Amino acid sequence: MNDSYINVKNQITQAGSWQEKYREIMTLGKELPVLPQELKVDSAIVDGCESNVWLYINFNNEERKLLIAADSDTRIVKGLLSIILYLYSDLTPNQILLIDANKEFEEMALLKHLSPSRGNGIKAILNEINRKAYLMNK
Amino acid sequence: MLDIDKVRKKFPILKQVVNKQPLIYFDSGATSQKPQCVIDSINYFYSNSNSNVHRGIHTLGDRATVSYEEARNKVAKFINAQAKEIVWTKGATESLNLLANGLSNFLHPGDVILISALEHHANIVPWQQVCANTGAILKIIPLDETTEKIKLETTYQLIDLYKPKILSISHASNTLGNIQPITDIIQYSKKYQTITIIDGAQAFMHLRPDMLKLNCDFYVFSAHKSLGPTGLGGLYGKYELLNSLPVYQTGGEMIKSVSFDTSTFTDAPGKFEAGTPNISGVISFGCAIDFMNKIDFLDQKTHEKSLFIYLKSQLEKISGIILYGDLELNIGTISFNYKNEHPFDIATLLDQCGIAVRVGNHCTQPLMRCLNIEGTVRISLAFYNTKNEIQQFIIHLKQCLSLLD
What we know:
The complex is a heterodimer. Chain A is globular and about 40 Å long. By secondary structure, chain A is mainly alpha-helical. Chain A is built from six helices and two strands. In chain A, strand 1 and strand 2 (65-72) form a beta hairpin. By secondary structure, chain B is of the alpha/beta class. Chain B has 15 helices and 17 strands. Chain B is globular, with a radius of gyration of 22 Å. The A-B interface holds A 18-19, 22-23, 26, 49-51, 73-77, 120 and B 19, 341-345, 348-349, 352, 359-361, 374-375, 399, 403-404.
């Protein structure tokens, strides 16, 4: 795992209150580059009913790395996307497959955001990243 | 006056602590909480009377059947109808599907089915399917943009214009809480012998509908939104019309005789209850009715109304909050947005405070389009909520909104 992710994770786990923690998450969301309007198309939407999430994953063959771009219309989901990007950025497919995202979210006490009732697509994004990594690793 | 402390003690779940805060349950429109007697009755049934209904020549079978049919009587009495006019289904959605399926036989191409703009998907999609299969046409009573409710005059004009074969509207809106003027609409529809259907899923517990007074042809409801268990609902139908509908599902229980060539069916309600029914659900819903009967309806209404007025006035004081719908005639449900914030963010933060609300389009996407929004935060109150909970909610809400600013 890269240092920038470890930093982010520390910031979240060390937050003194839930207010501070969610403020941190939303600040991370603000750092996430905004997806251009023309890329916010239905075909890029991750299925989910409570918020819109757009996701693009590309594989850079030369560097053997996944390139992920994502955006959401909610602040909290955007923040969670930002965490995911920190978690997976600059990793090879093999390294990605070794990451236990559930464990990471659990350690940040954010596991409930992966629950099926949320419908915010976070779980779907993690699945999609792993699926692409698996295909590239073969 | 409603003894609210006494009432709350009957609902074990309300004592819960969620995210280190006392639970504030403001999502009764999604499903109501259940009193202890309803929970106990399910346990009691399986421990003492479990057996199939309408067929056992043994003591347990008799006991189960008596309790099962007794619950039908209780519901019938509660809504001022006859027991044979009550069909058990698995929910208001199934009741509407049963009606859509049955009534489609009476429709011809060009016939109009009239619904309102405030309908839940369950009172839209089945009719769209019927229209696709029969050539009937679905027409909509529009939302008045200023008042955010339907207008009686417009409704009358549309009834005169279309002379609809079927009119199906909600007693109260699940998203906005609007109590719709159904008594007048039903009355007016008689002019054209329109078959009137009322979706009472939201209204049943709050308004205790009286079938004789309403004079509608059908009324559908869900047990779980009215203190009862999930997986059970009901359909009231004026007997002659109800009994004239063709069967919906077929199988055991609903037949008179079967040969390999043909079968004959029992009369309503039996002919609509194929297979082993949700016996424990029905019996426990009977207990939910007993529970409601013990609460004075006027006390309940007064309490719910005062909660609603208080909540509305508190929300109106927060600058940036936009409230939707009819804020006068309302079952105690308020939908709102805050500035341009996403409802999902507000609800996620509220959850951290132990507050349960619903967000999204509430299965009313067409209504959201009418209001030109994607979704709302919805608070839906019940008689077991308190003024103190609203005070706490407002404090927490302000805190959550400040995190977003």
